[in-house]
Amino acid sequence: MGVAFLATDQDGCRCLQRAMEAVPNKELIDLIFLEVLEHVATLMLDPHGNYVVQKLVEVCSEEQRTQMLLMLTKKNDLQLICISLDTRGTRSVQKLLKYVTTKEQITLIMRALSPGVVALSKNSNGQHVIEHCLEHFSVHDNEHLLHVVANNCCGIAKDKSGCCVLQKCVEHSNGKNRERLVAAITAKAIVLAVDRYGNYVLQHLLGLRMPQITENLLRQLRGSYMSLSCNKYGSNVVEKCLLDSGEEQSSQIIFELLTNRNISMLLLHPFGNYVIQTALSVSKGVYHDALLNLVQLNSHVMRGNYYGQKCFFSLLFNVTLVGMQGFVHWSSWIGANFRLI
């Protein structure tokens, strides 16, 4: 019975792993390696065989890992990509990536994965392979990967797995690579802000609190803050803009909202009311007073509205909004106009 066949059997798989875990025996490892090498792609996808491959990767030599990579990349350009997309295969690939040590090995891997960067990024299994490359390989090694991601950032950002990969790309890039990537994301800001996954990418950029990135993003969103505030996902982005930008920038956002003729609808809106609450929490001076006046002027319609009441109760319990003196005044006014149910 051959080693490759034995590796696909549950008991045989365990037996082979125990043999490799025992006192290092180069002759035994060499024998298993030669038997497994020809079938490595198939075994990486096998329910039991993938564990044998993972253990073999741990104990074999640097030269043997290179041979394994050559076997996975030379015969079929897409073979490593297909394995990475598989639930079992991705574990074997990640194990192999963990043990690469030479420039030649990294080059083989990146060359093989490059045609599938977008597909891998948008796949729950492939995502982990891409993230491993970003976290453990140099920016230079990942340069082509980052270039492909930048060119396809919108589609990747709007995917559940892709939005996580894109955030990792921003974290693990620098210089021109990061500038290109951030510029590509910023150019699609309006579209991404209202997407269920894309909005997290924009919030991540804002969370970096890098002045130039924030300024460019706010400029791209300018003129759309009202419509974004009425969107389930866009409202989260507007709140993040208010919280993570400077006082001057947040004041510009609040001014845009206040000068919109439909501003009062935000007080009653399922998502917009949260934007108003956040605006009240960060605003100062005339902008804060204007928001308070807005609330007071619309109290008659807010009284019977669930979301309108949320705004009032937010004021009631947040002492820091207007200071103790203002808080006492507003507490009395709210108490006279609302009844807690």
TrEMBL record:
Renumbered ranges of Pumilio repeats: 35-71, 147-183, 184-219, 220-256, 257-293
Keyword Repeat (UniProt): yes
Single Gene Ontology BP annotation: regulation of translation
Pfam families xref list: PUF (PF00806)
Cellular component, GO annotation: cytoplasm
Entry coiled-coil feature ranges: none
TM regions (residue ranges): none
CDD domains: Pumilio
GO molecular function annotation: mRNA binding
SMART domains per UniProt: Pumilio
Domain of life: Eukaryota
Biological function: Sequence-specific RNA-binding protein that regulates translation and mRNA stability by binding the 3'-UTR of target mRNAs.
Protein name: Pumilio 8
